[in-house]
Design goal:
Blueprint lengths: L5 E2 L1 H6 L3 E7 L10 E3 L3 E11 L2 E15 L6 E15 L14 E4 L4 E2 H12 L24 H9 L1
Length: 159
C-alpha cells in the first residue's frame, strides 16, 4: 500500500506546483460498478497555476480501463485520455459558478485528496453507457437461434 497524496490546493496553485504518479484502476473503488475487471492503470498529472486572479488546478489522465459493454455485457477496453481545468473557490462562492457550463469549480481545500479528485474526474469523464462499436459485440444471445424479425418477413412479402 502507498501513502495517499494530499495537497493544500490554493498554495499548490499559487506556487505552480505539479504532482505526477500512476495508480492501478483497482485502487479506485467508485468504479467497481462500471468495470468488467479491475486491470489497468492510469498515469496522472495534477498541476497548479494561476489564471488572472484565479487559482486553478489542471488534471491530466492517461491509461486504460476495462468497462462493461452495455450491449453485450462483455469486456470493452476503454482508452483514457482526459484533461480538466478546475477553478478553486471558497465554499461560499461555489454557487456563483454552478450554472456556468464553461467553468468547473471545486472547493479550495487545505488538505485535498489527490486520488479522490482523480477518481471523481474519471467517474465524470467515463461514458454513461459504454458500448462496442456497432457490429463488434458478441451477441448477448450466444448459443440461441436468431429468428427473423416479423417486420423483415413482411418487407420480403411486399416485394
Amino acid at each position: 500500500m502507498f501513502a495517499r497524496p494530499f495537497i493544500d490546493s490554493v498554495d499548490f496553485a499559487r506556487n505552480g506546483r505539479e504532482i505526477r504518479g500512476e495508480i492501478a484502476v483497482s485502487e479506485l473503488s467508485r468504479l467497481g460498478d462500471v468495470l468488467a475487471n479491475s486491470g489497468g492503470s492510469l498515469t496522472y498529472i495534477v498541476s497548479g497555476f494561476r489564471e488572472g486572479d484565479s487559482d486553478m488546478l489542471g488534471i491530466s489522465l492517461q491509461g486504460s480501463c476495462t468497462l462493461k459493454c452495455q450491449r453485450c455485457l462483455g469486456e470493452l477496453e476503454y482508452p483514457v485520455d482526459m484533461t480538466s481545468r478546475l477553478l478553486l473557490l471558497p465554499a461560499d462562492r461555489l454557487g456563483e459558478v454552478e450554472d456556468d457550463d464553461e467553468v468547473d469549480a471545486i472547493e479550495a481545500d487545505p488538505r485535498l485528496d489527490v486520488l479522490a479528485l482523480i477518481e471523481e474526474e474519471l467517474v465524470l469523464g467515463l461514458p454513461f453507457a459504454p458500448r462496442h462499436p456497432e457490429g463488434k459485440c458478441a451477441a448477448a444471445t450466444n448459443g440461441l437461434q436468431q429468428k427473423a424479425s416479423p417486420f423483415a418477413v413482411l418487407a420480403g412479402l411486399k416485394k
